[in-house]
Amino acid sequence: MRNAYSPYSRFPVGAAALTGDGRIVSGCNVENASYGLTLCAECTLVGNLQMTGGGRLRAFYCVDRDGNVLMPCGRCRQLLYEFRAPDMELMTTRGIKTMDQVLPDAFGPEHLEETR
Ligand code: THU
Question: What are the CMP/dCMP-type deaminase domain coordinates in residue numbering (predicted)?
Fold first, then answer.
């Protein structure tokens, strides 16, 4: 969160996750003048996951500048869904949940396989 670039919203966000092989990967939001093309903290976290050896996310946590838990936005739930371990735990404003609870009936890579 301290690395965030958020001059437009002034809302720094930090995200961290534990990977299947025991690494901690993190991310922060990176905004730009177009506003709409902002990278959420989850976007840079997933990039860092891939750049540091890949793998799957086992546990995920996202915070605002005061350390309060933040819910991932809709787009970022999709990003997390792609890279989740099957039993990934996600901290939410209402306690620990699974990806299926925060993105039920998700579209995912398995649906592309079905139509090939
Ligand atoms: N933001 C995140 O980084 N992750 C979220 O899940 C929610 C929103 C960022 C995007 C933007 O830079 C700022 O928070 C305000 O929306």
Answer: 1-110
Q: Is the CB of 29 under 6 A from ligand 1?
A: yes
Q: Which range marks the domain in which residue 41 is found?
A: 14-114
Q: Does the annotation place 68 within a ligand binding site?
A: no
CB 58 within 8 A of CB 20: yes
CB 19 within 8 A of CB 27: no
CATH number at residue 109: 3.40.140.10
How far is the centre of ligand 1, averaged over its atoms, from the C-alpha of 40 (Å)?
A: 5
pLDDT tens sequence across 50-93: 999 999 999 999 999 999 999 999 999 999 999 999 999 999 99
Would 4 be classed as within a structural domain? no
Which of 1, 31, 38 best tests ligand 1's pocket when mutated (most atoms within 8 Å of CB)?
38
pTM across the whole model = 0.95
Judge whether 5 lies within some domain.
no
Considering its fold, how many domains does the chain have in total?
Answer: 1
